[in-house]
Amino acid sequence: MTELTEEQMQQAASWMVRYQETYEMVGEFMWHFAMLEDDLNNLVEQMMGLETINGAILINHLDIAKKVNLAICGMQLQPINQQAAIKDLNKIFGINDDRKIVAHCLFGPTKEGGAVEFHRTTTNKKLSLDLVVWTKDDFKAKFEKMTALRKSLVDLTNTVKIVQSELFSTWLEGNPPGGSVPLND
C-alpha cells in the first residue's frame, strides 16, 4: 500500500473540509424548504377546514405546485389583501425550482471552497448541460427568502377562515347536485 505524502494528506483534508461545508449548505437548504412546505401544508389544511390527520393524508398526495395553487384559489375567498398573499404564494414556485436543483442535480464543492456547484442536465426538447454555482451568500439569501415566506404563511394561516362563498352558494342553489331533475317523481 502506498503511503500518502504530507502534501497529499493536506489536499485530502482540504477537500474533506470543502465537502463538509457543501453538505451543510445543501442540508440547511433542504431543512428550510421542508419547513416552508410544512407551513404551506398548514395553510391549505386551515383553508380547507381539514383536521390534522385528514389534512396530512390529503396533503401528502399533492406536489408543491398543487398545494400552492390550492392556497391561491383559497385566498380568493378571503377578506384580506389577496394580491399580497398571492404574490407571496407565487414566490414558492421559484423556490421550488431551486429545490429541484438541490434535490436532483449532482453537486460538490468548488475548488476554491465556499460555494457549491450543481451539474444540471435538462432535456426540454434540447439537451442542456449547465454548471450552476451558489456561493454561501447565495444560500444565505435563499434561506432568508424562505424564512420571510414562512412568516407570511404562518400569518396567513392565523388569519384565514373557512369561507362559504356566496357566489358558490347561489350557484349551488340554482344547480343542485344531480342537475335539475326532481328526486321525487
Report what the structure shows.
With 185 residues, the protein is mainly alpha-helical. The protein has a domain of 113 residues. The chain is built from 6 helices and 3 strands; from the N terminus they run H-H-H-H-E-E-E-H-H. It has a 3-stranded antiparallel sheet.
Tally of helical runs: 6
Mean pLDDT: 88
Shape: elongated
The total of beta strands comes to 3
- Report the end-to-end length measured between terminal Cα atoms: 93 Å
Question: Helical residue percent?
Answer: 55-70%
Structural class: mainly alpha
Radius of gyration (Å): 24 Å
Order of helices and strands, N to C?
HHHHEEEHH
Low-confidence stretches: none
Largest sheet: 3 strands, antiparallel
Beta fraction? 5-15%
Q: In what order do the strands lie side by side in the largest sheet? A: 1-2-3
Descriptive tags:
elongated, 6 helices, 3 strands, mainly alpha, 64% helix, 185 residues
